[in-house]
Amino acid sequence: RTVDQGLYYYKIKNFLNNGFLPSQFVVYPGNVYLENRDDLASNPVLEAVRERLGTHVLRPTENNRMTKMYNKGKHNPLDDTLTNATLRRRLEEEVYGPANKRFMKLLARMVDKGMTLVGYTGEAHDVPAVTAWMEGQWDF
């Protein structure tokens, strides 16, 4: 991913600042979807989207469903690409770390405004609980 792709706080905040409602968002840690991607009927992320858009959506017929899809492209692991440990640490400490903290605070505030956090069962405004929910299921 590029640095910009990982800065979720700024993307969601921009949408909220430009008229989107928290209730229009379904947020999920990537692993929640990935661990259930082969089960389109009961994938928790797809179920949350269906609650918003209707039970008929995101249900491909057997004839057009691709049961296995793989990223066949070749790429080096991030650790091989960013060989400079100092650069990786600085990105985490100075870029991703602070942005992710702001993202968790934003998500915690938006729970009681209708934002769906798939699998989150804690209270609104509970930043440590939202952070634990996300960290447990995402390469944070």
Q: What amount of the residues lies in strands?
A: under 5%
* Mean pLDDT rating: 83
Coarse shape: globular
How would you spell out the order of helices and strands?
A: HEHHHHEH
List keywords for this structure.
globular; 6 helices; mainly alpha; two-stranded parallel sheet; 140 residues
Compact overview of the structure:
By secondary structure, the chain is mostly helical.
Description:
This protein has 140 residues and is an all-alpha fold. The chain contains 6 helices and 2 strands. A two-stranded parallel ribbon has the order 1-2. Helix 5 packs across helix 6. The chain starts with 7 loop residues before the first helix and ends in a 5-residue tail after the last helix. The mean pLDDT is 83.
Task: Describe the secondary structure blueprint for this structure.
Elements: H1 8-17, E1 26-27, H2 30-34, H3 44-53, H4 78-81, H5 85-110, E2 116-117, H6 127-135
Parallel strand pairs: 1-2
Helix pairs in contact: 1-5, 5-6
